[in-house]
């Protein structure tokens, strides 16, 4: 009941309320982005959704327009050269993720769920298949994100995603939600660049999605 109906109702209701409450912040952030650098306000990137159907995730643009498009930022050798001044603040505060409220409203994402992999993160997608983690709606935040985020090796990340799928419930979602708030306030698990990632020997298309 919760997985099939209640979770979607909660997602839509909360994201709709969030859009109404947060639209002034959207406007302010959009103005700051435009004043800081040339390019669009939003950044779109192809990700893997429920049942491995592709969709375009939305974020506030935090990089210059000629930055690599289909590579996790923490896998870049020198991401700082691409990140804008406003983008640095947005990424540290996780405010760059706010436009994903639109993805949630559209039914492409959930508030809580496995973070959507990049379309070319084949090893992560394959590993998640073992746990059924590609068969549920991806989330704005998830069990893996509050247990390491960019620091996690792919196998461990997929395993945690599988634990979420197995134990999905309202109480578990609430636990992850409040743990996410704590992690965001402390900026835990956010890594920028290959020098900060344990999986430095991975192929650049096989990084852990942030």
UniProtKB/TrEMBL annotation:
Q: Which domain of life is it from?
A: Bacteria
Keyword Transferase in the entry? The reply is: yes
Q: Write out the coiled-coil annotation as residue ranges.
A: none
Name the family the entry cites.
Answer: Belongs to the bacterial sugar transferase family.
Its source organism is Geobacillus kaustophilus
Q: Provide this UniProt record's keywords sorted from A to Z.
A: Membrane, Transferase, Transmembrane, Transmembrane helix
User: Example GO molecular function term?
Assistant: phosphotransferase activity, for other substituted phosphate groups
Where the record annotates domain Bacterial sugar transferase, the positions are 7-186
> Protein name, please?
Bacterial sugar transferase family protein
* Keyword Transferase applies: yes
Q: Which residues cross the membrane?
A: 12-33
